[in-house]
């Protein structure tokens, strides 16, 4: 935004330093003058003549003599203080504002699109050092966020292109082969279209949670866990799994729809990524002094620790954990993490010693 030209901060500080120095000098000289007028004995201020009755014929000055001797030197001293204050203040202000110049230069570099630049201000911790460190931390966070958004956009484009490419291929085959079974083509198109819809809805939900565009109400995680379990119970029975829910009333504040989606994703993942037969899923809620916990555990294969850290990344489906009959869209745990963070909570993934995964969501208590 264009602003009217004005004095720089360095010039303002210079004038402030010089003005303060001039004021201190005037006060000091005033004190000296008052001392000469008040505390020098009155009888010494005679006519300003030679005292002949004293040894050496001493000359005693009067007030006029003091004024003639003092006033010119006061003027010279004030001029010296003014010049010294302006010159010294200019260099002192420049030295004090040097860190601010580095911060300004880094800001302009960041505004040009280069987020990798850092100030790295040296010296002891003061106000400028705190500002520079805070700016470096902000740049690092923005850079990581931009990189994450770019990766997400690239992955989302790839994931959305896949069903569209499959649809195009199926339509080309149907055009070139009119005698092909239309029912099979319709079924495959329906499956591909349903997957594209699921992916689009997941992306919209992820964006909504990330932007925190939702209302907050008092909710109970234990009731949400029961609701998600009841919804997915037929799927668990179909796969021969058992689901157990337990725990305390866990009050928190947030969006009921998003927290239900988060819990549903966790329970759905626990069902899908489980043993082929005879597996189990445990859902528990706990209350701590300042937080509430939702924990979802499931049996399954042993998971390496390096795989655990990648499961919350978008479109990371975990090689070896996906069943062919339910691949999903690769956004389940990414949505869970985003919803938890949007509610000022955390998501923790821990491999179980006997195989499977333990997922814990910790949210602020109501």
What are the key terms here?
366 residues; alpha+beta; Helix Hairpins; Heat Shock Protein 90; 3 domains; five-stranded mixed sheet; two-stranded antiparallel ribbon; 8 helices; 57% helix
Task: Give structural notes.
With about 375 residues, this protein is an alpha+beta fold. The protein has three domains: about 10-115, no CATH class; about 130-210, Helix Hairpins (Orthogonal Bundle); about 215-365, Histidine kinase-like ATPase, C-terminal domain (Heat Shock Protein 90, 2-Layer Sandwich), CATH 3.30.565. Helices cover about 55% and strands about 10% of the residues. The strands form two sheets. Strands 2-4-5-7-6 form a five-stranded mixed sheet. A two-stranded antiparallel sheet has the order 1-3. Strand 6 (about 345-350) and strand 7 form a beta hairpin. The longest helix has about 50 residues, at about 125-175. Mean pLDDT is about 80; it is low at about 45-50 and about 320-325.
